[in-house]
Design goal:
With about 325 residues, the protein is α/β, with parallel strands linked by helices. Helices cover about 40% and strands about 15% of the residues. The chain has two domains: about 1-245, TIM Barrel; about 255-325, Non-ribosomal Peptide Synthetase Peptidyl Carrier Protein, Chain A (Orthogonal Bundle). Helix 7 links the parallel strand 7 (about 140-145) and strand 8. The radius of gyration is 20 Å and the shape is globular.
Length: about 325
Amino acid sequence: MVKIGDIQLPDFPLLLAPMEDVSDPPFRALCKEQGADLVYTEFISSEGLIRDAAKSTMKLDIYEKERPVGIQIFGANLDSMLKSVEIVEKSKPDIIDINFGCPVKKVVSKGAGAGILKDIDLMVSLTKAMVKHTKLPITVKTRLGWDHNSIKIVEVAERLQDIGCKAIAIHGRTRAQMYKGDADWNPIAEVKNNPRMHIPVFGNGDVNTPKRAMLMRDTYGLDGAMIGRATIGNPWFFKQVKHFFNTGTHLPPVSLQERVAAARRHLEMAIAWKGETLGVFETRRHYTNYFKGIPNFKPYRTKMVTSDKSEDVFAAFDMVLENFSDYQFATP
């Protein structure tokens, strides 16, 4: 069993990574139903929260059915981060996670996200202040380092643990790599194997098949996997991994009928939560993966990702069922 503060998770839990415009309540609900053990919100700007920006405050919506759930915030200004903790607490999450890993330029340029990897002392002092400011468990998501020449993740992780961080998730790339090349899990295993470490160490990056998840567990010995891009349009990934862990075999491929039903429900929930316009727009990125592998699918995908009205997207789903009802997907 893995514990984050008083929160108990199963052995080698599977975590849904916080992803901008992806891990919203509708998608988190789908992933939770398919076996995600812990889910995180999209990352939320501390500056946006204290300004009461609509996009930031909307991301605070969490629901009982998705617990345990963590709210992730980012920023580099201590006063803003402490004020945002107070705002976040009102949503009653189970965990507050700090994003020290986002590589996007607009975040990094403000010294936030992976930008703080240039100033480890600030990273530690900011985390320490936040730990003292709340009774909720504080966890951290970060990267190996700013670049290949500045990887000090073993030391960084230990320092974060020693000031009260309750778990750490590490993406196996540096900021300089962005999302290019292969994730390197060896430094994450070094963190886990540090005899002075006693908090959970989760691996992140390139967990894109059940076999890769098993490798992270059995070969690298990590405490759990935080899974991001492999889940987009594929909430079944959690269930597939757990089945593989338990049996050593793959589940049958998800049928077209199940995929259409999930895509339809996803869009319905998105519209109910954020309205027609945003609901239609922000669900588009999932359709490629929901229907990945279907030959000659481009016209249908184009209709799904260019239509502004949900009725047109729903009609495209119906057309897919009519025209590809016999299609068999490959085993994941």
